[in-house]
Amino acid sequence: MRIRRPRFSAIFEDARRQLAELRKESEPKFREVRKSTDERLKTVLTIRRRFYAGWRNFESKYKLLVAAWALYDNSQQQPVLIEEGVNE
Predict the structure, then answer these.
(1) Backbone angles phi and psi of 87, in degrees to 5
(2) Measuring CA to CA, how many Å separate 20 from each of 6, 13, 38, 54?
(3) What are the tens digits of pLDDT across the range 19-70?
(4) pLDDT of residue 2 exceeding 70
(5) Rounded CA gap, 19 and 16, in Å?
(6) Distance between CA 2 and CA 4 in Å, rounded?
(7) pTM of the complete model
(8) Span between the terminal Cα atoms of the chain, in Å
(9) 60-66: long-range contacts, CB 8 A cutoff, minimum separation 24
(10) Cβ–Cβ contacts within 10 Å for residue 59, how many?
(11) Fewest Cβ atoms nearer than 10 Å: which of 1, 37, 48, 84?
């Protein structure tokens, strides 16, 4: 069976048109998902950045400014003492 050129081109042109319409309809949803994902990642990265900045400050500044300090793991129901120190 032989495919006639005009019919073949018409099928592809129709498919292109349908895909273009689908893309226009879907673009707002893609933007919404992208925006939501960016916001969630920004939140996680901000939390991590603040945690590590606080940890660096604890290690390099705060421990040296106090007479005694203690570091606890409070991720469980009961805090667990990890490290403690006394400055003289």
Answers:
(1) -100, 135
(2) 21, 11, 26, 50
(3) 888 888 887 787 888 888 889 889 988 999 999 999 999 999 999 999 999 9
(4) no
(5) 5
(6) 6
(7) 0.54
(8) 95
(9) 63/87
(10) 11
(11) 1
User: Distance between CA atoms of 53 and 62, rounded to whole angstroms?
Assistant: 12
Look at residue 77 in the predicted model and tell me its pLDDT: 93
69-86 per-position pLDDT tens digit: 999 999 999 999 999 999
| Residue type (1 letter), 41 | L
pLDDT at position 4 is 56
Two tokens, residue 8 = 């073949």
Distance in angstroms (rounded) separating the CA atoms of residues 66 and 87: 7
